[in-house]
Amino acid sequence: MKKIMIALAALSLLSMVSWANEDAFRSDHPDEYTVVKGDTLWDISNRFLNTPWLWPEIWHVNPKIENPHLIYPGDVIQLVYIDGQPRLTVERTLRMAPGETRLSPSVRVVPREDAITAIPLDRINSFLSRSRIVTEAELEAAPYMLAGPEQRLIVGAGDRAYARGEFDDHINTYGAYRRERAYVDPVTREYLGTHAKNLGTVNLVSTEGDVGTVRVIRSNEELRPTDRLLPNEQLAMDSTFYPSAPDVEIEGVIMEVEGGISNVGKLNVVIINRGDREGLLAGNVLAVYKVGETVRDRVQNRPVKLPDERAGLVMVFRTFEKMSLAIVLEAERPLAVNDRLRNP
Fold this sequence. Notes:
Elements: E1 3-7, E2 12-18, E3 32-34, H1 41-48, H2 55-58, E4 76-82, E5 85-92, E6 107-111, H3 122-130, E7 131-134, H4 136-141, E8 144-147, E9 160-164, E10 173-184, E11 191-208, E12 211-219, E13 228-231, E14 251-257, E15 263-264, E16 269-272, E17 285-290, E18 294-297, E19 302-305, E20 309-319, E21 324-331, E22 335-336, E23 340-342
Antiparallel strand pairs: 1-6, 2-5, 3-4, 4-5, 7-11, 8-9, 9-12, 10-11, 10-13, 11-12, 14-16, 14-23, 15-22, 16-21, 17-20, 17-23, 18-19, 20-21
């Protein structure tokens, strides 16, 4: 278990940030808020700020704290005024060892896992583990499942099987993937990438020529002939994102929602048609707009397109060359595939 060391103190000042005026704060903000289990940094920031993605400024904190971005249940966030300027402070309550009833000048160990996350990571971790965007060329060049023992066509965890292709001498573990669908930009019709669905994991036991013997060590679904084997990705998912507006102008659309549904709600994962190439970064926040309806002007007797209406916010959490995955943080009304994305 990863742990951090925090010195005992009656009160630890974690954060103090000032704004030139109160425009950044919601009119109905509380004077203080006590963090509870289940909170996220986004939820807390949204209680105080009109623009919740400014939370990195809230958690810009005392450099003596080892990891100032870790906020724990029981911490108290307060709005105070210093020299007439509004500032947010976070005070940490004492954490005592189990059974201890008095303070002592010693160091306590606080599990990192007790810290609240920036967003609900459980909503995206499962999606990351079973989704990968690759090119058709990558899939065509990858080794593929050939058959199971005794010419069986379906294999699962614990089974021995055979695959064919060019195996890397330095790679023993592969993910098994199945081609799901190719994505085409709905505006330009450019090919953006292919969604490969993860089915499981295999270990390469031996090779003879271009035929490899593999052992299925994990499977979500049965593996079949033609399923492709790709080297496992080393994904380092951090619970702390730094939400911000993109540095460049972004114009995009929602192409798909996890699960193939058409309507989008809060905490749904969506696939968008912009990525590394356009300058998107993990943590970038985008506003979602519903396309304005076209109505008839009964005075001039001609159609008029109404303005697009802002309807929500998404935050990018993983980028590919031409596409990205994002999570819906706010949805004032049901969102949908083909809704437009712009800088917030």
